[in-house]
Amino acid sequence: MKSHFKAYTIGWNPLDGVYYCDLRPVMKTDVLLKEHIKSLDYLLCEDVWKFR
Questions:
Q1: Is residue 14 within 8 Å of residue 38, measured between CB atoms?
Q2: What is the DSSP code string of the chain?
Q3: How confident is the model at residue 15 (pLDDT cuts 50, 70, 90)?
Q4: Rounded distance, CA 38 to CA 32, Å?
Q5: How far apart are the C-alpha atoms of 43 and 18, rounded to whole Å?
Q6: Total-model pTM
Q7: What does the pLDDT look like over 21-45, one tens digit per residue?
Q8: Residue 36's CB: how many other CB atoms inside 10 A?
Q9: How far apart are CA 18 and CA 35, in angstroms?
């Protein structure tokens, strides 16, 4: 998963948002993944309010 996501993000176009219910440890430590992947609670508490 990790290498595919990085390849798609760097090679193509990054997504507006990627959210997971339970983040894998590498998603919290890898610099690129940490920047692009957020937890589901971040979507509900932060990002959803930006769509108004």
A1: no
A2: -HHHHHHHHHHS---S-EEESS--HHHHHSHHHHHHEEEHHHHHHTGGGGG-
A3: low
A4: 12
A5: 9
A6: 0.65
A7: 988 898 889 888 888 888 999 988 9
A8: 17
A9: 10
- Token readout for 28 is 């919290």
Comparing C-alpha atoms, which of 37, 46, 45 is closest to residue 18? 37
Report the distance separating Cα 9 and Cα 36, nearest Å.
9
Structure tokens at 14: 């990054």
What does pLDDT average to over the chain?
A: 80
Token duo for residue 47: 């990002």
Confidence of residue 50 (pLDDT cuts 50, 70, 90): confident
Integer Cα distance of 50 and 32 in angstroms: 23
